[in-house]
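Example 3.2
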Amino acid sequence: MTAYAIGNLHPKPVLDEEVFVYMERVQATLDPFGGRFLVHGAPAREVPEGDWPGAVVIIGFPSYENAHAWYDSADYQALIPLRTRHMSGDVLLIDGVAPGYDPAATAAVLRAASGGGAA
Protein backbone atom coordinates (compact mmCIF):
# COMPACT_ATOMS: atom_id res chain seq x y z
CA MET A 1 0.00 0.00 0.00
CA THR A 2 1.33 3.44 -0.89
CA ALA A 3 2.64 5.57 1.96
CA TYR A 4 3.62 9.20 2.18
CA ALA A 5 6.06 11.51 3.89
CA ILE A 6 4.30 14.83 4.38
CA GLY A 7 5.92 18.03 5.53
CA ASN A 8 4.46 21.40 6.46
CA LEU A 9 7.62 23.48 6.47
CA HIS A 10 8.24 27.08 7.48
CA PRO A 11 11.34 28.43 5.72
CA LYS A 12 13.10 31.53 6.98
CA PRO A 13 12.69 34.56 4.70
CA VAL A 14 16.26 34.22 3.40
CA LEU A 15 17.44 30.71 2.61
CA ASP A 16 21.01 29.68 3.35
CA GLU A 17 23.28 27.71 0.99
CA GLU A 18 22.68 24.59 3.13
CA VAL A 19 19.03 24.47 2.04
CA PHE A 20 20.08 24.43 -1.61
CA VAL A 21 22.57 21.63 -0.91
CA TYR A 22 19.79 19.69 0.85
CA MET A 23 17.53 20.12 -2.16
CA GLU A 24 20.26 19.04 -4.57
CA ARG A 25 21.00 15.85 -2.60
CA VAL A 26 17.62 14.72 -1.28
CA GLN A 27 16.45 12.85 -4.40
CA ALA A 28 19.48 10.54 -4.23
CA THR A 29 18.35 9.51 -0.72
CA LEU A 30 14.83 8.75 -2.00
CA ASP A 31 15.81 6.67 -5.03
CA PRO A 32 16.80 3.45 -3.19
CA PHE A 33 13.39 3.43 -1.45
CA GLY A 34 11.22 4.24 -4.46
CA GLY A 35 10.38 7.71 -3.17
CA ARG A 36 9.24 10.48 -5.48
CA PHE A 37 8.07 14.00 -4.92
CA LEU A 38 4.37 14.57 -5.52
CA VAL A 39 4.45 18.13 -4.14
CA HIS A 40 7.66 20.00 -3.35
CA GLY A 41 7.64 23.21 -1.38
CA ALA A 42 4.46 24.64 -2.79
CA PRO A 43 2.49 27.10 -0.68
CA ALA A 44 -1.18 26.23 -0.45
CA ARG A 45 -2.94 27.73 -3.45
CA GLU A 46 -6.14 28.02 -1.44
CA VAL A 47 -7.10 27.20 2.16
CA PRO A 48 -10.90 26.88 2.12
CA GLU A 49 -10.96 25.72 5.76
CA GLY A 50 -8.64 26.45 8.65
CA ASP A 51 -5.14 27.87 8.52
CA TRP A 52 -2.19 26.26 6.75
CA PRO A 53 0.96 28.36 6.93
CA GLY A 54 4.14 27.18 5.30
CA ALA A 55 5.16 25.14 2.31
CA VAL A 56 3.85 21.65 1.59
CA VAL A 57 6.03 18.66 0.68
CA ILE A 58 4.48 15.28 -0.19
CA ILE A 59 6.67 12.32 -1.13
CA GLY A 60 5.12 9.03 -2.23
CA PHE A 61 6.62 5.61 -1.43
CA PRO A 62 5.61 2.09 -2.45
CA SER A 63 5.01 1.17 1.22
CA TYR A 64 5.24 2.48 4.78
CA GLU A 65 8.29 0.28 5.28
CA ASN A 66 10.03 2.07 2.39
CA ALA A 67 9.09 5.49 3.79
CA HIS A 68 10.34 4.57 7.25
CA ALA A 69 13.57 3.03 5.92
CA TRP A 70 14.25 6.19 3.88
CA TYR A 71 13.70 8.51 6.84
CA ASP A 72 15.93 6.37 9.07
CA SER A 73 18.63 5.87 6.42
CA ALA A 74 22.10 7.19 7.21
CA ASP A 75 22.11 9.19 3.97
CA TYR A 76 18.88 11.04 4.80
CA GLN A 77 19.73 11.48 8.48
CA ALA A 78 22.94 13.23 7.38
CA LEU A 79 20.89 15.72 5.31
CA ILE A 80 18.25 16.58 7.92
CA PRO A 81 20.34 19.23 9.74
CA LEU A 82 20.86 21.09 6.45
CA ARG A 83 17.09 21.62 6.36
CA THR A 84 16.23 21.98 10.04
CA ARG A 85 18.81 24.69 10.70
CA HIS A 86 16.92 26.91 8.27
CA MET A 87 13.27 25.94 8.52
CA SER A 88 10.96 24.62 11.17
CA GLY A 89 7.93 22.48 10.52
CA ASP A 90 6.20 19.18 10.95
CA VAL A 91 7.01 15.95 9.11
CA LEU A 92 4.99 12.77 9.25
CA LEU A 93 4.99 9.32 7.69
CA ILE A 94 1.54 7.95 6.94
CA ASP A 95 -0.11 5.06 5.14
CA GLY A 96 -2.32 5.73 2.16
CA VAL A 97 -5.57 3.85 1.64
CA ALA A 98 -5.85 0.53 -0.16
CA PRO A 99 -7.22 0.35 -3.70
CA GLY A 100 -11.01 0.28 -3.60
CA TYR A 101 -11.16 2.07 -0.24
CA ASP A 102 -14.75 2.85 0.75
CA PRO A 103 -15.27 5.65 3.30
CA ALA A 104 -18.86 4.49 3.89
CA ALA A 105 -17.57 1.09 5.05
CA THR A 106 -15.18 2.85 7.43
CA ALA A 107 -18.07 4.93 8.78
CA ALA A 108 -20.10 1.75 9.40
CA VAL A 109 -17.23 0.18 11.35
CA LEU A 110 -16.72 3.34 13.40
CA ARG A 111 -20.46 3.68 14.01
CA ALA A 112 -20.69 0.10 15.25
CA ALA A 113 -17.63 0.54 17.49
CA SER A 114 -19.11 3.69 19.03
CA GLY A 115 -22.43 1.99 19.76
CA GLY A 116 -24.26 4.25 17.33
CA GLY A 117 -27.27 3.09 15.36
CA ALA A 118 -27.63 2.75 11.63
CA ALA A 119 -27.83 5.91 9.55
